[in-house]
Amino acid sequence: MLEKEKQKIKSDFERREAQIEVQRKIQFSKKLNGQRLEVLKARQGALKDITKEVKVKLMDLTKNSAVYKALIVDLLAQAMQRLGDPKQIIKCRQVDVALVQGSLAQAQSKFKAEFGS
To answer: How many Å apart are CA 93 and CA 80, to the nearest integer?
Structure first.
């Protein structure tokens, strides 16, 4: 009878120990997930800040027509290279239609010069 009681106490202790270990693992997992969420929130905030900054800089860039045209030419040539074909459908802002149309020939020349096609 004494052995049964000892065995019962031992098994009860092991069960409680296992429960405590599971609880520790759950708490650790929650803490880790909380930290991951904080990192994701910080990253999202940083991306929003960068996006705002880029929009402001891009709006300033559009005021300098020579620099903006060079950017449009470079972007068009890069798009042609990435898509693998100098003939593409281009979408742009309504105010940039004339600029883009005027830059197409220059962008195609740049594409052919740099990427040979």
So the answer is: 19
